[in-house]
Each structure stands twice: as C-alpha cells, then as structure tokens.
Design goal:
508 residues; Beta-Lactamase; Helix Hairpins; 4 domains; 40% helix; rod-shaped
C-alpha cells in the first residue's frame, strides 16, 4: 500500500468517524465491516467486538431489539440490495430500564464500477424527541379540534382563494352547509352580494382594529336556503411573513338577542306609556273636578229658568241650546272621571246577554238606529260575569256609538256573545259595516284624546274609557279585525260562578 493510498484511507475513516449519527458499514451478507466511534460509544463496545458479526446480532445484544424483519417483502436492507437505492425503517426500541425510544435506521448503498452493491451504510438516528413532539402536536391539534368543534360560536376558516379549510358544527348549523361540501363553497357564498369584499377591505385597512384584524362588528350572513341572518362577528387574516395565506372568522347569531332587546324596548315603551297615562289620568281628574262645580250651577239655574220661562218666549230656544251643550259637557266630565278611575266600582254578578240588552236600551236617541239594522247573535249558554254593571253598560254604549259613527248611521250592527271555554271567558263582539280603521291609526285607537272625528264631534275618550273600564274589571278589549267590510271589537271578561261574591276593590 503506497503512502497516498494509506493517507486516503485514513482521511475517509476520519470522515466516517466524524458522522453525527451512529453508523455501520455492512457487506451485502449483513456482516459488519466497520462502525464509527459514535456507534461504538452508544453500545459500549470496541470495534473488534462488532466487526464480522451481523447487524442483527449486535442490535439484539446491545439494544434489546429483536432485530429487523428479514423477509424480502419488508426488510429495508433487502430493498436496498434489490433496487440499489436508499431505504429506511422506523422502529420503537425498549431500553434496559424499560423506557421506549424511536430509531430511524437509514440504509444507503455503495456501488462498484458495474453498479453492483458492494457495501451498505446503515445510520441509526434517534428520533424520539421528534416523535414525542409529533405526538404532542397531534394531541394539541386534537384538543384544539375538540375546542373548535364544541364552541357555541360558529367558526370558519378559508384559504386565500376563499376555499373553506375549517367549519365547525355550530357554523354548519348556522349557515346550513356541511363541511363535506367545502369543495363547492366559497366564502363569498356565506354573505349577501358585496359583503365579503367589504369585510376584506376592512381587514386590510389600518382603521378597523389594525391591519389583519376586525374587532366585533355586526354584519349579515346568507344561509344555504337564502335566509339573511344578523350576526356579530370578528375576523382576522393569517399571515406567513408578509404574505396572506388564510382568513378566519367567528360568528354569533343575533336573532335571539335582538328579539330580547325588542321585547325590552317594547316593555320600556309600555312603562313610559303607563306613566303618561297615569299623568293624563291625574290631569283629567283635576280638570273634571274643576269643571264640575261651575257646570252644576249652570245646569241648576238653567233648569230653574226653563220652569219659569214661557214656551212662546223667543229666548227659550237659546236656553235649550245652553242646557243641551251643558249636558254634553257633563258627559265629557263623566268620561274624564271614568278614565281617571275617580269613580267607585260596585261589582255584582249578572249575565253577559243582559249587559248587551241594557246597554242598547240606554241609548236614548233611537233616531240613530233608523237606517241601521241590528243583528243580535246572543248565545243561549249562561255566561255570568262579575263586574261594575254601570261601567260595563258605558263600555257597550261607547262601542255601539263608535260603530254608528263609523257607518255614518247606516248599515248593519252585529252584537255577538259566546263563551270561550278554553280561556274561561265570556266574549262580546260588536261589528259594524263601516269604512274600517286606517293602518296608521290602528295602534292609537285606545290612546286618550285621540280621535279621527271632526272637531266638536268627539273627545277621543270613548275607546280609551272603554279600555280602562274593561281592564279595571279584569277583562280585555281588542281590535279583532278591520277593513273595507267593517270593524269588529272584541271584549272578554272572566266567567264566574253565579254564587261567587264580588270582590271589593280599593281605589287608590
């Protein structure tokens, strides 16, 4: 061996020993030709202890490894010899203390000038840390998947082309799509036209929460069925360096919250309306009492003058006008007192049909009915109610007069009574064939002092007084229907045992 050849061999051995992985050189029959120092240190042996032995024997002795499978189908060394290319096998090894580690054994062929394998280099790489990190990563990913899937908020992620990458169960339920259909869905399909672009413009802007971030905002999404749903959402762009690679968004359905907010707003309006009605009631009571005193004097002295003045006296007609207008003022004062609850209710038991008959009979001006056909559809079933008889008569009179005015004193007036057994109420419906109530006025018909009649023909207290009286007697009054064919008002009062004694009510 010349000096140059020896130097070359020494240099190659130094390179072999400097390899960072434990490495063997094998003949095609699996006997060991050489091993680097790292391998020898690893197994705690000298080179003479391994040369000439097979790799299977060495691993079985020092690593408690049963050895690589030696069948032609799955032996990586056999695959290297056959195909003259590198191969590898990943194995889990048990150490002497019972702990497990992972090894990746890589086989690389050394070929001669004819392309035949003359040696095989086997490197043993400890990949325990890599496998542990992989396992940890898979565990964390599985945990995150569970967190995302169990979230009550809808979560969606998409790539830079709008293709869906993630859609949790809440998102599937909200949008009506399945993630299995992701190939045919793009993010723009989740919004009404133009909304997706608007959201991306906001994400790329510095104005809304900084570049790549969209704080909580209200938007509208589009479901698979075409329904538009209000949502509260946040969104973000996912970057790799400065490059946009994906987007994600979290959605919360606002329908239930908006419904609750609307109910709260309606309740607040009702409270304000109640406070306003209470203030109007106090005002009405004060006005009524102030007017009642001088009105009593006018009626007293006016009637005394009527007794003394001659029928032929030309002033008699003027006096009659004065008394007639005074009577109208007295009726207005009576309505004001009823509206403000300043009268003492005297409850008693009576039949609903009796109330209808008495109410009609108390309308003194029968000329109002000349061109009106009255239809009574009164139930034969006994319907006892307990209420203030005089107040409820006033309700019937007010509703009938309201119907007559709506028909302009001609048409059909229908009064219908029947028991509502499920609700345990007695029902009175009063229908006319008038012009109906316009849509813009329907919400105000029970407001005090609201009237559509001409100036001087109404005070706007008729329906509001009826509403207050019915409520005072634990009943309800409502507009059942209205239109070109007429209007129907519905009054419901609790059915009561005729033996039941009326309950006293304290007036505050």
């Amino acid at each position: 061996m010349n000096e140059q050849t020896k130097e070359e061999i020494d240099w190659r051995m130094r390179v072999f020993d400097s390899l960072s992985f434990p490495t063997l050189i094998l003949r095609p029959d699996r006997t060991i030709v050489s091993a680097n120092q790292i391998f020898l240190t690893k197994i705690g042996a000298d080179l003479a202890d391994v040369v000439g032995r097979t790799c299977r024997d060495i691993f079985r002795q020092y690593d408690h490894d049963p050895g690589l499978p030696c069948t032609k189908q799955n032996c990586p060394l056999h695959q290297t010899l056959k195909y003259r290319e590198g191969s590898s096998v990943l194995r889990q090894i048990a150490d002497k203390d019972g702990s497990l580690r992972w090894e990746d054994r890589v086989f690389s062929p050394i070929l001669d000038e004819d392309g035949d394998v003359i040696y095989v280099i086997e490197s043993v790489r400890d990949v325990t840390r890599t496998k542990t990190l992989e396992k940890m990563y898979h565990g964390i990913r599985a945990f995150l998947d569970k967190v995302i899937q169990s979230s009550a908020s809808a979560i969606v992620a998409a790539d830079n082309n709008g293709k869906l990458l993630l859609m949790n169960e809440a998102a599937e339920e909200l949008f009506g799509y399945y993630f299995s259909d992701a190939e045919r869905i793009r993010t723009k399909d989740l919004y009404p036209r133009g909304v997706a672009k608007k959201i991306m413009d906001k994400l790329r802007s510095e104005v809304y929460g900084g570049r790549g971030k969209l704080p909580v905002t209200k938007e509208t999404i589009l479901t698979a069925s075409g329904e538009e749903i209000p949502v509260e959402m946040t969104a973000a762009i996912i970057y790799e360096g400065e490059r946009e690679v994906a987007t994600m968004a979290i959605y919360n359905d606002l329908r239930e919250r908006l419904a609750v907010e609307k109910k709260l707003q309606d309740a607040q309006k009702q409270v304000l309306q109640s406070e306003k009605m209470a203030s109007l009631g106090r005002l009405a009571a004060g006005v009524a009492h102030e007017i009642n005193n001088p009105l009593t004097g006018i009626l007293l002295y006016g009637n005394m003058m009527m007794e003394k003045i001659s029928p032929a006296d030309p002033l008699r007609q003027n006096l009659e006008y004065i008394l007639e207008d005074s009577d109208r003022c007295r009726d207005i004062v009576k309505n004001l007192l009823a509206y403000s609850r300043q009268t003492n209710p005297a409850k008693e038991a009576f039949q609903m049909n009796t109330l209808v008959e008495e109410g009609l009979s108390l309308i003194r001006d029968q000329k109002l009915f000349i061109n009106v056909r009255i239809e009574k559809q009164l139930s034969d079933a006994p319907m006892a109610i307990i209420a203030d008889r005089n107040q409820m008569r006033q309700v019937v009179i007010n509703l009938v007069m309201n119907a007559l005015d709506a028909m302009e004193k001609k048409g059909v007036l229908t009064l219908r009574t029947f028991p509502e057994k499920r609700a345990k109420t007695a029902v009175l419906e009063i229908s006319d064939t008038g012009r109906g109530i316009s849509e813009e006025n329907r919400s105000r018909i029970f407001d005090p002092f609201f009237t559509t009649k001409e100036l001087g023909r109404g005070t706007g207290l008729g329906l509001s007084t009826a509403y207050g009286i019915v409520k005072e007697n634990q009943g309800s009054i409502s507009l059942k229907q209205t239109g070109r064919e007429g209007t129907t008002f519905r009054v419901e009062l609790p059915l009561a045992d005729i033996q039941e004694k009326p309950k006293e009510k304290t007036i505050g």
